[in-house]
Amino acid sequence: MSSITRKNAPIGVFDSGFGGLTVAKALREMLPHEDIVFFGDSGRCPYGPREPEEVEKFSLQICNWLAGLGCKLIVIACNTATAAALATCQMAVDVPVMGVIQPGARAAVEATRSRKVGVIGTVGTITSGAYLKAIRNLDCGIQVVSLPTPNLVQLVEDELIQEYIEALDVRQARVMDELAPLLGGNIDTLVLGCTHYPLLYNEIKACFTEDVRLVNSSEETAHDVFETLDRRDEFSESREPGHLRFVTSGVDTELRNRIASRIMGFEITDVEFKSFDEE
Ligand code: DGL
């Protein structure tokens, strides 16, 4: 690929479902001229309760497909898939593959003063110990308190899929219940270690005192992508808004358009369908 062609190639982004659109949105805001291809594996979501080997297999299928489309860089916009498959994907394709765990871990290490950091994520992410390792690789003196919070994924999915919005106090109570083990634990920084969680940012923030800082790994990852493209001299040369392509394994056309529009904040009517089930 010539350097001009590579500069103008899209960034590939994928997630187990639509939560990863929080990363696509952060990328769009930071890099408005870049083309983005997003794949959400909604037909096989959630990844959180699956065995890591299965998540690795799914991630590899998607990563190879995105590389085949000519993406210049691929973002695994899913913590569970990053924990299970980042290394395998990096070895499988010849473009940079970035996950969401390293950027979030680094931001938490930089932010904490009490040196006590909380991490919430799916069962798969927390069981993998990937955040603990990433944080300890940067600073062995930081205490990490990890908590699986799968019900928060469920809450987001229910609301996105059913468009059933809980009364605000019920919603807040569900979030508070799930986070209860972390409250009063003296953490001063909390990593939102699941790309669904930025969609509950206000509710999570309201559970803690004002001084507790939330790390949104979606935004941190977008920063890292910016820096990587800058160092590689691979920014798009276009001055027009980049083209956004959305693809999902979720079957309901109306639903996938509605969910994508809601997270991205503008109307999307052409989410495409693709399934990897037969591969
Ligand atoms: N978005 C996924 C993550 O960041 C969580 C959803 C799932 O369980 O598939 O881990």
TrEMBL record:
Substrate binds at D15, S16, Y47, G48, N79, T80, T195, H196. Its EC number is 5.1.1.3. Pathway: Cell wall biogenesis; peptidoglycan biosynthesis. InterPro entries: Asp/Glu/hydantoin_racemase (IPR015942), Asp/Glu_race (IPR001920), Asp/Glu_racemase_AS_1 (IPR018187), Asp/Glu_racemase_AS_2 (IPR033134), Glu_race (IPR004391). The active site is at C78, C194. GO terms for biological process: cell wall organization; peptidoglycan biosynthetic process; regulation of cell shape. GO terms for molecular function: glutamate racemase activity. Keywords: Cell shape, Cell wall biogenesis/degradation, Isomerase, Peptidoglycan synthesis. Coiled coil: none annotated. It comes from the Bacteria. SUPFAM superfamilies: Aspartate/glutamate racemase (SSF53681). It catalyses: L-glutamate = D-glutamate. Signal peptide: none annotated. Pfam families: Asp_Glu_race (PF01177). NCBIfam families: glut_race. Provides the (R)-glutamate required for cell wall biosynthesis. Belongs to the aspartate/glutamate racemases family. This is Glutamate racemase. It comes from Phoenicibacter congonensis.
